[in-house]
Structure formats: structure tokens, C-alpha cells
Amino acid sequence: MSDASTVATVKTISNDALTTGLPNSALRTPTPVSTSTVSQNVVPTQPSFVGSIIGDNPYFQAGFGLMGLGVVLTGARQALIFGLTTLRRRMLVSLEISNKDKAYDWFLAWMAHQTQVQAQTAASSRSILSRSVPWVRSHQLSVETAFEQRNNGSSSVVFNLVAGPGTHWFRYQRAWMQVKRERETRSMQMMSGQPWETVTLTTLSKDRNLFSSLLSEARELAMKGNEGKLVVMTAWGIEWRPFGLPRRKRPLKSVVLDEGVSEKIENDVRAFLDRRQWYADRGIPYRRGYLLHGPPGSGKSSFIQALAGSLGYDICLLNLSERGLADDKLFHLLSNAPERSIILMEDVDAAFNKRVQTSEDGYQSSVTFSGFLNALDGVASGEERIIFLTTNHIEKLDPALIRPGRVDLACLIDDASPSQAKRLFTGFYDSERNADLESLGDELENTVDREMKQGRRVSMAALQGTFIRSEPEEAVRAAKELFIER
Ligand SMILES: Nc1ncnc2c1ncn2[C@@H]1O[C@H](COP(=O)(O)OP(=O)(O)O)[C@@H](O)[C@H]1O
Ligand SMILES: [Mg+2]
């Protein structure tokens, strides 16, 4: 009975018996056939023995069944995952915006704005589906505070509640979008020390064109907020970033300079801006430098701000005495100023009254005079660049600084001249409420003229201070006390 063929037969039979339930005897008939086939190839005894165990054991059989089921299920799961991934790939689109990009702030501001609009309209319309405004849902908010301290001491604060890190959902033009704001805490941006952040928008791929309309809507919103406003930027590491809130533009004619000075500077800048091609044709770097010098409170800073506003330019404010500003950073900042901006460096004499600059505590500041000159000369960058320098002491400036190419136009912005004082005065008060404004203006003009001949002057800032405090007659009288020897 240990014959291989017999064992095989038995196995077959028992298998069949199991499946069909027929008695062994009934199946003995085909034995000779199987014997003849099997006996020709010599089958080793061992596997057949194992086979008999497996074959006979119902547990193994059940195991096989389970295993089969497992395989099928695993397969199904894989297929499902694969299917979902493909579906995701084919049906969803994602857009990643990093905080290096301008669109980043626009988008967050836009989302914050939508939340506000939504809160306002929530009362009026019941169903979220019937609302025309995008529906935003976020539970994690982070605050972005914009703070502005003005010259006159007033300040304003705006808290913007924007979507915080996490996942948010909103509905935009009947499409659902997922917003994931993520923060990379392990690494910081090299120079600015800000964490990296990204916002990822995900939506169905059929709605992919909504991204661009959403982003341009966000941009428009940002631009509208800045319309008629002057954006002042400061250097953060090697980057330019808006400083405080955009300020209301100051009308150019509200800064009263001596006859023709304002026009001269404005025309020069406008002519420069019209001559881009002229510069390019001659291979001259497209840049122009201005120096406004004169006593403090004569309107230098105010004029530059008003001029930038009237040109629709931003101001990039650079403080040369700032700690940690090294030659290479300065160079980078000057060659990477945002477009349509004026670079303003105030009080350059204080930073460079000697060729080697030192700060009060004896430490040598890192911007050197030669580094500064190099940065002004710049490399052959084709970008337009307008630089304004101001100083109260032009005599302290190194002549190397005031040569064409670095400073192309230098203007004296002086203390009040007689006509300047009168123009500031008459522009300050309402002529309908003050009938004798003109004659009072003449009186002030004469006063300034008389004092000037005796070598005494008054600053425009001091005059303005008096005008703010007093009524016209009172102001003209008080102005007489303001003159000082110069
Ligand atoms: N020429 C001017 N016309 C109008 N306002 C002036 C003028 N000069 C100074 N002021 C006022 O005086 C203040 C200081 O002026 P500012 O521009 O800072 O002077 P500067 O930069 O020359 O020191 C500002 O509030 C400004 O409105
Ligand atoms: Mg100033």
C-alpha cells in the first residue's frame, strides 16, 4: 500500500469523496487509468505524505479558503487605493502658494474678507447654497495685526483674522475648495527668520480654472485696499516688506516748496521715467539719484512721500545706520527693490560723515562708505531705479557721493521763504470762513522777509505747528516769535 500510485489514488478518491460525498467503493473503477499514468514518473514519497495531511485536514482546507479571501480582499483594497489615487489625480487639482509669493498674503486677506462678508450676509440669507458670496468655514484663525504710528502721534490698528494653520473649506463659485495652511517649523527662511509656510488649495479638476479667477480676485482686493494709498516698505534681512498700513497719499501741492523747486524735481523724475529706451539705446544704467538737502522740518521727507504718491510709486525706506546691514545686504537690497518704487535713504550724513562709519558705542557698523558707493553704482541691472537721499548737512558729505551717476540732481530745500510762508498759510485755512486771509498772508510774508534780512529764519514745520494750533490772526502774531538765527 506504500506504492506511490495507490497513495495518489487514495488521495484522489478521498478528495472526491469529500467533494461529492460518494462512498470510496463507488470510485474504485478509474484506478487502473490513474495507476498507469502516475507510475510512469516516479513521485517521491515525502510530498505525497504532506499532501495527504493537507488533503485530509479540514482546518487546512478552511485556511486555504480564508487565505483566498484575504488575497481577494487585499487585492480589492489595493485596487481601491489605486483607484482613489488615480481618481484624486485625475479629478482633483491642487495649487500650492508659498509665503515667498505675493499671492500668499493676497489669498489669506481675501479669505479673511470673505469671512467678514459672509458674517454680514449670514443674517439675510438662510441656505449656504443660495448665497452668492463664497462660503468660508474655518475654526482655526490666526491674527495679523497691522499697526501704524503716524507722525502726529495718532495710531491705528487693524486686526485681520485670517485662516490659521490647519485645514479649511470654502465654497467659491459653486465649487468646494479645501485650504490647507501648513507651517514648516524646522527651518526658517534664511535672512528674514520667518517660518516657511504654504497654503494648498485643492478642488475638483473640472474647476481648475477657478484658481486663476480666485487669485486675480484676491489681487484686485489687495490692490483696491491700496488704491490712493502709499505703501512704505522697509528692509527685512534681504527682503523688502510693507511697513505698517498703507498710508493715505499726501497731495503734492500740500507740500509747499520755494518757487519752482517742486516742479523742477517732479519734471526731472517724470522725464527720467519717459526715457527708458533712451537709456537702453546708449547702454547707460537706467537709474537716477536725487539729493534733497536743507535744515530739518523743511519738507524733504514729506515732499518725497507726496511725489511717490503722485507717481503711483511705493517707497522703500532704507536706514543705513541699521545694525546688521552689511555691504552685501545693501547691495542686494538696492538691486532688488520692488518695481515702481522709490528708494529713500534719510540723513545720509549721519551714516557717512566720515569715510569709516562708527556707531555711538564704538562698534563699527557694517556698511562701509565704499560699500555704499558700490551699491549706488550697482551692476548692470536693467531695472529702473530712483534713489532719494536726504541730509541736513550737505557740507559733511563726501564729494565722492555727490557726483553724477550717484546724485544726478541736488536740491536745496530751505527754511520758509516769504512767499512759501504765505502759500502755506493761505492753503491752510478756509478762505470762505476767513475773509481777511489774503491780507493776513501778506502780513506774514512781510514778516518773513524782514526777519530774513536780519539773518533769522523759520522752518516750515514750525509754521505748520502754529497754524494747526491757532486761528489765522493769532497764527500770524505767534509766527513772529518763531524766528531763530541761522
Ligand atoms: N514745505 C512744506 N510744506 C508743507 N508742510 C511742510 C513743509 N515742510 C515741512 N512741513 C511739515 O513739517 C513736518 C515735518 O516735515 P518733514 O518733511 O519731515 O521735514 P524734513 O524731512 O525736511 O525734516 C511735516 O508734518 C510736514 O507736513
Ligand atoms: Mg526728514
Automatic annotation (TrEMBL):
Which reaction(s) does the protein catalyse, per the Swiss-Prot or TrEMBL entry?
ATP + H2O = ADP + phosphate + H(+)
Domain (BCS1 N-terminal): give its ranges.
Answer: 67-255
| Single GO MF descriptor | ATP hydrolysis activity
**Keywords carried by this UniProt record:** ATP-binding, Hydrolase, Membrane, Mitochondrion, Mitochondrion inner membrane, Nucleotide-binding, Transmembrane, Transmembrane helix
Topology in the lipid bilayer is annotated as:
Single-pass membrane protein
Write out the GO cellular component annotations.
Answer: mitochondrial inner membrane
Q: Quick one: where is this thing mainly located?
A: mitochondrion
Q: Where in the cell is it found?
A: Mitochondrion inner membrane
**Gene3D superfamilies, per database record:** P-loop containing nucleotide triphosphate hydrolases
Which InterPro entries does UniProt cross-reference here?
AAA+_ATPase, AAA_lid_BCS1, ATPase_AAA_core, ATPase_AAA_CS, BCS1_N, Mitochondrial_chaperone_BCS1, P-loop_NTPase
- Which is an annotated Pfam family here? AAA_lid_BCS1
Which Gene Ontology biological process is one annotated for this entry? mitochondrial respiratory chain complex III assembly
Q: Which residues form the AAA+ ATPase domain?
A: 286-417
What does the similarity note say?
Belongs to the AAA ATPase family. BCS1 subfamily.
Please report the name of this protein according to its UniProt entry: Mitochondrial chaperone BCS1
